[in-house]
Amino acid sequence: MTAPTAALAQLTGVYAIDPSHSRIGFVARHAMVTKVRGSFNDFEGRVAFDGDDPSATEVTVTIQAASIDTRNAQRDEHLRSNDFLAMETHPEITFVSTAFRQTGPDTFDLTGDLTVRGVTHPVTVPFTYEGAATDPFGNLRVGFEGSVTINRRDYGVTWNAALETGGVLVSEKIVLEFEVSAIKQS
27-45: per-residue pLDDT in tens? Predict the structure, then answer.
């Protein structure tokens, strides 16, 4: 483990994820030939960061499944249905951290329990710290980016359609993407 630096120690505190300057997205293969990108537009999160002991860091994120957006209303409705997210029964997707491990001066692995459709599995997301800045309103902001690939079938998301040419309509592997701007709370 990399020793905490003085710069990290200065970041100690509780942060709220700023949804208007953050993105939680995903990428799935479609018809085996292209990628469909989407995001969730309604989410909130909290980060309690301990710069002296980064392993004590705690992160929670709650995503409203109904906020899924792939820029296609018909597809979004299908993704909200029982075939995919079953949002009427499981309106939220959640992540609760269980471990934080610094892997380099500006990189870390965040491990936690991801719950989709009421099914929970551990995931580890490698993140890069993008920096800190004070915005025009005097708020300290920190930025992080990361991504991880999951198998949607592990979460009970099994719907698919076979293609005449072989293969399936929607990939099992989904890349989750996180571009996070978080504001330090007073």
Answer: 987 767 789 899 999 999 9
What is the C-alpha separation between 165 and 64, in angstroms, rounded?
Answer: 36
* Spatial separation of the C-alpha atoms in residues 115 and 113, rounded to whole Å: 6
Neighbours of 104 (CB within 10 A): 9
Rg (alpha carbons) of the chain, rounded to whole number: 18
* 30 found inside a domain: yes
pTM of the model: 0.90
Q: What's the pLDDT at 168?
A: 65
- Structural domain count of the chain: 1
Find the domain containing 111 and state its range.
6-181
* Residue bearing tokens 């939220």: 92
Q: How many CB atoms lie within 10 A of CB 34?
A: 8
Contact 38, 67 (CB under 8 A): no
C-alpha–C-alpha distance, residues 85 and 173, integer Å? 15
Which 8-state DSSP code applies to residue 109? E
CA distance 151 to 116: 11
Measured distance CA(12)–CA(184) in Å, rounded:
9
CATH of the domain at 175: 2.40.128.110
